[in-house]
Amino acid sequence: MGRLLKINVFRYNPEDDKSFPHVQPFVLDETENMTLFIALNRIREEQDPSLQFDFCCRAAICGACAMVINGRPGLACKTKTKDLSDDITLLPLPVFKLVGDLSVDTGVWFREMYDKTESWVHTSKRFDPAAIEERMDNAVAEDIYELERCIECGCCVSACGTARLRGDFMGAAALNRIARFLVDPRDERTNADYFEVIGNDEGIFGCMGLLACEDVCPKNLPLQNQLGFLRRKMGITAVKQIFSEQIFRRKRK
What we know:
Elements: E1 4-11, E2 22-29, H1 36-46, E3 66-69, E4 72-75, E5 87-91, E6 97-100, E7 103-105, H2 107-117, H3 138-148, H4 155-159, H5 161-165, H6 172-182, H7 191-198, H8 212-216, H9 223-252
Parallel strand pairs: 1-5
Antiparallel strand pairs: 1-2, 3-4, 3-5, 6-7
Helix pairs in contact: 2-6, 3-6, 6-9, 7-9
C-alpha cells in the first residue's frame, strides 16, 4: 500500500455564474510510478467527473498538461508523485486565459506570438517542388533542431516575472523562436529587421534576466544562452543604428 496523497486542486468554471475560485482537496492512494497525469485521471474517473484539465500525448511532447505544481510550472505527465510530498497543490498556469479548473487556453497566446514574430522563413526565392533540397551544414541544422524542440507548453511564460506583470511582453518562447530563425541561413532577414520585432521593451530588452524560464522548461532548452545571444545581437544593432543616424545628420549639416 502506497502513501495517501492529498491533492489540492484549483476549481473554477468562468462560464458558470454560480462557480467561484476555490481549492478542493482530493485523497488518493499512491501507486507505483504514478504521475500527476495518472492521479488526475483517477480523480476524474473515481471521484469527480467534472474536473477539467488538458492532456494529449502523455509523453511530454504536446505540452497540454502544463500546470503549476506546488508553486512551480511543470508537466503533469512528466511529474511523478514520488518526487513530491504527500500534500500537493495544483493551480492553472497564470498569464493565459482560464478555461476551467486546471485548463487554460495557450493557443490564442501562441497564435498571436507567431504573428508578432513573423514565425516563418523569409526568403525571396520562389519555391520549386522539383528542385533538390538545399544542403545545410550539420552543425547549423543541429542548432536549429535544438531550438525547435520547444513544445509550446507555456511553462516559461508562466514563470516569467515580466510576462506576469505585463501582457505585452513576448516571453522566452517568442524570443527563442526568433533565435531559431536568426541562425537559419535560409532566412534573409537582417539584424535590423529582427531589431524592429524584438529590439524594444516588449522584446529582448524587457527581459529582467531572472531566468525562471530556463529553470522550469520541461525540455531543458538553453534559454539563458539564447536570451544572452539575442541581447548582444540587438544591443550591437542598436549601437550601429545610433552611429549611422549621427553620421547621416553630420552629412546633412
